[in-house]
Amino acid sequence: MPFGLTLDMAVVFALVGVALVLFATEALPVDVTAMVVMVALMVLEPWTQISAREGISGFSSPATITVLSMLILSTGISRTGVVQRLGNRLADFAGDDPFRQLAATVGVAGPVSGFINNTPVVAILVPVISDLAHEGKTSPSKLLIPLSFASMLGGMLTLIGTSTNILASDVAARLAEQPEYAGLGLREFSMFEFTLLGVVVLVVGIVYLMTVGYRLLPERVLPEEDYVEEYELEDYLTEVVVREDSPVAGVTVEDVGAQTPLDFDILQIDRDGESFVEPLDKKTLRPGDLLKVRTDRTSLERLIDLDGLDLVGAITEDELEQDEEEQGLVEVIIPARSGLVGETLASSTFRDRYDVNVLAFRSRGELVRERMDHTPLKVGDTLLVQATTGSLDRLSQNRDFIVAHEPDDPDYRTEKIPHAVAIIAGVIGFAAMPWGVFSGVPVLDALSVIPTFDIVTTALAGVVAMVLFGVLKPPEIYDSVDWNVIFLLAGVIPLGIAIEQTGGAELLGNAVASTGEFLPVIGVLWVFYVATALLTNVISNNASVVLMIPVAVESAQQVGSNAFAFILAVMFAASTAFMTPVGYQTNLFVYGPGGYKFSDFFRVGGPLQLLLSFVTVGGIAVLWGV
């Protein structure tokens, strides 16, 4: 084969290609794609060199267990409401000043994301920031992208800020054990290994977001706009009256829907001065009933002709929220952990299960109008729902949703805040503190006998402590974990091993190292940063790390450079995917509520990505050398 390519390498590269296509197109959920790749690696063992034991090694990887533990710890923190309280305090400070609102947004998201996994931080803060924008008469579009970007930047402050850092550390430690990489200075990262560079990146990013970035941000959702206008529902929400001669008089709502092959939903019945919302299926329609209906114009015309209904007119948001105590409108976001991903509103019996009416939804920046009930739900989709106060409270407590509005009476365990903060401090402290430095120091000498533990040990101990001190209840442990992230990690880790063992990493490393003939070493380092950033904006950040780090180490070895510096460049680039909404989960969380278009992320994130490529690579060169 040409260019030193062997059959083994070709098979592994083919699997990498398939994985990249599936990740980019979202033809399958990312965790399913990872499992497909893992099984294929084991089935094709004669060529991939991945045994069954190596194939499932991702499940026992310290990185996987650490990420799992940190997700649980992050949930414990969120259950206490400490992050929400901090956000609300800063919201009070911000008031209706747009500059202060932006400062409050990035000021909370950035630093907090260094110590709590940044994905849950954004999930926690989306409703806080959305309410801040609403109350301060500011477009949420001006605040939500900065929320996501600041959380990514803050995730680079410590080892535990993001799963990407933890995985990169694990891959570096595994490569350090390989004889061919001896003497390259590879090692597992310490807790604050790259904090100084992380601070520089965070400060530069915040300055950009509050100056150039703010001017580039659109106002997709206008402050004065109501949901009916925002979701362009004027032609889709209508009032009709049941006539005396209507065949639907005396028929239940459930039977009307079953008997009429049209796309419509009855959202509310007004009768004799009383309004009925959910549940409506068993309600019998009577002559004179005023029905609030969601449908399209074509279906409405056919419905009126078919069933003897008189058209009254379009519905306003005020009419949908006539009684704030009884019902309201709110946006809910589908996170990656939701069991609704891949389901449709019809197949999930959404309306009956959650006692809500779905008025509209936005998917990948586009409003879905036709066959809404039969459109598969994706991560990041935003549903506009009408529900009673009780239903909204239940939605806010359901792990299948992120509700873009804080509940009026949140059920936080505020009395557990000291316990949760102490546990997180202990997890970080015992993993980071070199207790031996106190040896021989008066008074503090006794501390020198305390061992320094691996992060996986302290994180697991923190989970146990959370349960013992009542911060989390035992059943909540399982609900706390984004299992798709765990399966993704478990699936892509053996892919990285296959690239190394078949010599694919060496082949690619040599190819990239050849750029050293006309580029200085720092230029090769910059190429790796840019290549990883571009790849991460299309596929999973964790997959990018697994694929790129072995190649980066090989390239560094070939050009006689600092391999550790190359790993850091890959890790920082993989953790800051600004240019597309699909490159990082936090971007998907803000995609719908901000009303963004796909191009908005590139317009705001592209210049930031380019700026940070120079800042990060330059910082690595100064702090670690190349």
Automatic annotation (TrEMBL):
An individual GO BP term: potassium ion transport
InterPro entries listed in its UniProt record: Cit_transptr-like_dom, DASS-Related_Transporters, RCK_C, RCK_C_sf
GO cellular component entries: plasma membrane
RCK C-terminal domain residues: 225-309, 317-401
Protein's membrane topology: Multi-pass membrane protein
Keywords for this protein: Membrane, Repeat, Transmembrane, Transmembrane helix, Transport
Name of the molecule in the record: SLC13 family permease
Natural source organism: Salarchaeum japonicum
